[in-house]
Every structure is written in structure tokens, then in C-alpha cells.
Amino acid sequence: MLDRDLAELYEAETKAFNRAVKRNRDRFPDDFAFQLSKTEWDSLRCQFGTSNEGRGGRRYLPYVFTEHGVVMLANVLKSKRATLISIEVARAFIRLGKALASHETLTKEVVELKSFILQHAQKNDQPASGGRQVWRAIEKLSTPAQPKKQQRIGFNLDY
Fold it and tell me: What is the domain range of residue 68?
């Protein structure tokens, strides 16, 4: 997350926020927080359209924080708001980790199911294409339906 987004979340000025981080730089190794390069910042600015330099834009390159850096901020920013935000951030990352683990488990189960179907078809002297047909049917059921193309509103000349 960018320093300005976190500063807003913690209800602090970005300048004061970064000053607190710089005073405690030993708590933020490179895998917790780092400063963007000029090239990275220019690329990012193009994506979300910040003001031009010299017209009220940033004077310094922003810091970026990983999930570990965000959690470490609670030790640097000593306020009730900082503590509450850090707790919620930690909970969000825990939920994200559980969701990813669930996805990996589901993927593994689907691979095992495919293997089982194809092996079962071979054991019962069915052609491998029979197992593949069953597998294609399962894939078709598990693939989300494509939304229908919306019909245009208004006068239609095509009869």
C-alpha cells in the first residue's frame, strides 16, 4: 500500500507519517517497506493521474508497505486509530490467506477428481473418450455462464 493511502487510513498527514517511518527505519526492512524509484512512480502516476510536478504534486518518492510493514506501523504510530487499523489489516490478511488456501485445496480436489474419472473409465474398459466426455460435462457445469449480449434499445432496422 502507498504511504498516502495508509496515512489517510491512519488519519495522519503523509509528511508526518513518513517522518515517523524514517525515524524508525530499522523496523522496516526492504521486505516490509521500500521507496519507489522515479521510473516506478512515473509509471504509477500515469495509471491514476496525479497532479504534475510543480503544481502541488509530491516532492518525494512515495513509500510502499507490504502486509508486514502495515502491521509494523502500529508500533511506530502510537494512537488508538493506528492500533484499530492494524488489527483490521491483520484480520484482512488472515482472511485473504484462508481464501487462497481454500482455492488451492479446491484446485487439488478438482485435479484428483479428473484423475479418478479417467482411471475409472479405463478400469471399466470404457474408451478414454468416455471419461473425457464426463470430465467435459463437469467443466461445462463449473464454468460460469457468459452474460448474454444486451439488446440495443431503440429503433431497429434489422428485420
Answer: 3-78
